[in-house]
Predict the structure.
Amino acid sequence: MILIDGKKAAAELRAELKEEVAELKSKHNKVPGLTVILIGDLTPSQIYVRNKEKSAKEVGLKSEVIKYPDSVEEKTVLEKIQELNSDETVSGILVQLPLPKHIDKQKVIEAINPSKDVDGFHPMNVGNLSSGYESSVPCTPLGCYLLIKKIEPNLSGKKAVVVGRSNLNGKPMTQLLLKENCTVTITHSKTKDLKAECLEADIIVAAVGIPELVRGDWVKKNAIVIDVGINKTDNGIVGDVHFDEVSENAKALTPVPGGVGPMTIACLLKNTIDCFKRSQI
Ligand code: NAD
């Protein structure tokens, strides 16, 4: 079985992006800029944002974090987004989720200029992705897609099963696989026989949030299995896939941690650079 090393893949992607940033700098005499808005003092969000800032600097991007207390008014955040929308040094804007309850998440997402929406959550980008047009793609499914393509460059005609239908993971993942001419089944909490669906799959992407939901006897021989889940349990962090059982059948499998996770931030950097490149045309 191939253990899909997300750490290594992410390091390779960051190295490629670093070179690209250097080339863009010599061509345009400026570098792509990523601005992250962080509201409140939730520890996981602070850690994510710190890692995003560190990685952005590593590849040579201009990186800025704007922090607000939990009590910040929605209006203040929306005004800041407008300011960043018209700031030419800012290529990508990301508002770290979750937001405090008094701030309307959808309003915030829709305030970001779609051409700077590095998370790919703006309805314009969601629509472009599902229409097969160029768009920013949410970072985690984009990372999964790049890992799958490393294992199997030609996905045409493959049967893919996506477990989970969130806007963050399952739905964009489905679109990416469709674009590659896979036959895609999207499954969710109301799916009647999840095991039977998974058994049909050449590729399974599990993004559910239930520890070790996908078992060894759900996976056909030589399937590629991508585990997006990050679940805290008494035995530490585990994915949505039962690693030991599934590794008996799968052709390739991502570990948790060290699989999809590291690719997410690398893809955020990629999205920022892609937004910059599109703005220079
Ligand atoms: P979500 O809660 O928004 O969506 C979960 C989906 O799973 C829903 O569509 C639901 O219908 C489906 N589901 C629930 N129970 C099910 C069942 N029994 N059978 C089949 N489907 C079921 O979750 P999300 O934001 O997509 O995140 C999913 C997991 O991925 C979580 O563990 C999260 O922590 C993790 N995650 C990882 C990364 C990363 O970088 N690796 C990024 C984001 C999320």
User: Anything to note?
Assistant: The two ends are 43 Å apart (CA to CA). The pocket of nicotinamide-adenine-dinucleotide is lined by residues 140, 163-166, 168-170, 187-189, 191, 194, 207-210, 228-231, 260-261, 264 (CB under 6 Å). The first helix runs from residue 6 to 28.
